[in-house]
Amino acid sequence: MKLSRNAIGWLNTIPLLAVLIPFFVVPILVVLMASFMQTDGFGGMFMDFTLSNYAGIFTSSLTYSLYYETIKFAVLTLIFSSVIGFWVAYFLVFHVRNPLIAMGLFLVCTVPFWTSNIIRMISWIPLLGKEGLINRALLELGLINHPLEFLLYSSFAVVVAYVHQLTIFMIVPIFNSMARIDKRIIEAALDAGASRLDIMRLIILPMSKSGIALGAIFVVSIVMGDFFVVKVMSGGGSASVVGAFYEDVGVLQYPNAAASAVVLTVLVMLMVALILRIVNIRREIAR
Amino acid sequence: MESRVSKGKGDIELAGVAKSYDERTYAVDGINLKIPDGAYCCLLGPSGCGKSTILRMIAGHEDPTVGEILIGGEDVVGLDPVARRTAMMFQSYALFPHLSVRDNVAFSLRVKGMSKAERDRRTEEMMEKVQILEFADRIPSQLSGGQQQRVALARAAITEPRVLLLDEPLSALDEHLRLKMRAELSRMQRALGITFIHVTHTQLEAIALADMVVVMDKGVIRQAGSAREIYAAPKDRYVAEFIGGQNVISGRVRGLGASGARLEGSAFPSVDIPIHAGRRLEDGQSIDIAIRRDEINLLRPGQAGLPGGTTGVEGAIVGVEYQGNFVKVLMNAAGEDEFVAYVPERRFFEDDFHVGDRVFAAWQVEHAHLLV
After folding, report:
1. Shortest CA distance from A284: residue in chain B
2. Which residue among A169, B280, B327, B332 is least packed, with the fewest CB closer than 10 Å?
């Protein structure tokens, strides 16, 4: 039997579909369906099409403050992790001459990931706490009279933890796009009289755009979908979108939680679309 | 900044220039070379001979370990490329892949801080000169190899350099385009009237383009001279074999007389060699001689009498390649791996030879060229 080209193409996608459909498409559909259902208040759900779950979300001022808070964390994390990620990748690619050392340093960047997320977060406590290393050092040096309160259990701590956790997701794609820049292009720019700053601004930054965009997608979608870091590092002082519907689940309000999840998913998709709109990754990679 | 930019001409002098990356071996090992202003100079040699390193040192992308580099009579070591007024055209062009052709060409003007109006005018002018105006808004990956080369040329030439350095500019092109762009380079050099230094490993390219050919090997210059000099009067076996078109045979000088001598080889009895006033020979001295492949006449052995003033060696034909306007006959003769005659097509087919035939390769005694 001779298969048409089209049929062979579909056959090739079967393994991917076999993973995507049961583990991605079906759950999303279940959540979507649940978001239109009603609850008896005791965990039971019955199919009676309603938009009241969504109406509840959009009319509550809490929703907007939660989104404001979460997007603020996402944007701050994005700014710090991309600045740090860019410089680390720049250093590794353009300043470390020996590729072996560059690879070694690259691996060092991943060392924090050898331990669990929770341990990494807890390890900030002795550093940032009231009696922590930083406050103690500043007190001893006489720079401050009483411990800085904002270091731990604050928005500051949340952003620190996110940046610590997510900068690697910036470093890797930026490193990758920088490593693909032909060194002769840098030389050609020098030959044309470009200064270090010109080269950074006109050559390296635009050519690393796809890496920055990929990193931004990781960072934004992880921060938007996280509640644990906010919970632990803010000491309960800040809430998050996911944290709120996690609590809905805790009190058996499944349809509400499902509707929140759908709204969040749509919003993250829009953010990713916006990033892709700004940087045409496909075109950048095709170059 | 502007005041530091050199005003002099584009003549170049390398004095005792050497470059070592590891302090033990030298990539460039004591080069002395003078290139006149406005010359088209080709640095020719196999890969790894140091020719690109020399180019990069002239460009200012590398500093010599020792020695002086003078452009327009002024030592430029330590100056950056802009202050030297050199421009480089990189191997495979190194165009900025994210910028349009226009922005590529305008790049040096932009980093110089030139006003946009002036920049646009000059860019437009340069693009017109190299005929890339019609693709001004494309990015490099949308251009063919030949178009990319023109963009690279425009990007280099817009800095108004006094020396243009070209690193294997034709190697990224296919055969047909290479010949076309070769002619274009030559035309551009005449149009710009500046010194071109062109690095290549292709002999034909060097000979066709250059006013001055510099043959290099392992970091040293083996011979520098006009293309004709290098081709017709190579200095040693290396140059003769690298340039090609020559058969080189080795032997010892015997029977030195007032009008001539003989060369006795281990694999051939003896051939007559000319003697020149400028060249002192000693009996028993071992030398190489070169005979151009197109000056060899193939005869049947045992044929009556060798014409006067000719000499030759006997061998067996191991290959015949038809080349169109001539026939390349490969022989096993004089103990050389490759002994070749280029026989004009018409003459070859008057009495054609076949693989395995015994043959006598004859040449005019005075056509043999004595090597070191």
Report:
1. B98
2. B280
Range of the domain at B299: 246-370
Q: Is B362 helix (H, G, I), strand (E, B) or coil?
A: strand
Residues of A in contact with B110 (CB under 8 A): 202
Nearest chain B CA: its distance from A89 CA (Å): 20
Interchain CB distance below 8 Å, B107 and A192:
yes
Given a cut of 50, the residues of chain A with pLDDT beneath it are: none
Strands B40-44 and B195-200: parallel
A286: chain B residues, CB-CB within 8 Å = 141
Structure-token pair, residue A100: 């072996």
In a domain, B240, yes or no: no
Give the pTM.
Answer: 0.78
CATH number, position A143: 1.10.3720.10
Cα B24–B27–B30 angle (5° rounding)?
Answer: 90
Min Cα separation B87/chain A (Å): 6
Q: What does residue B105 show for φ and ψ, rounded to 5 degrees?
A: -65, -35
Compute chain A's Rg from CA coordinates. 24
Is the Cβ pair A207, B110 closer than 8 Å?
no
Predicted complex ipTM exceeds 0.90: no
Best residue in A185, A191, A199 to probe B by mutation, most B CBs within 10 Å?
Answer: A191
Which residue of A lies nearest to B2 if distances are taken between CA atoms? A193
Contact predicate A170/A219, CB 8 Å: yes
Residue B207 and residue B142 share a domain: yes
Number of domains into which chain A is organized: 1
Using an 8 Å CB-CB cutoff, list chain B residues near A198.
111
pLDDT tens digits along B258-316: 777 888 887 778 888 888 777 778 888 888 889 999 998 888 877 666 777 788 888 88
- The reply to whether A77 falls in a domain is yes
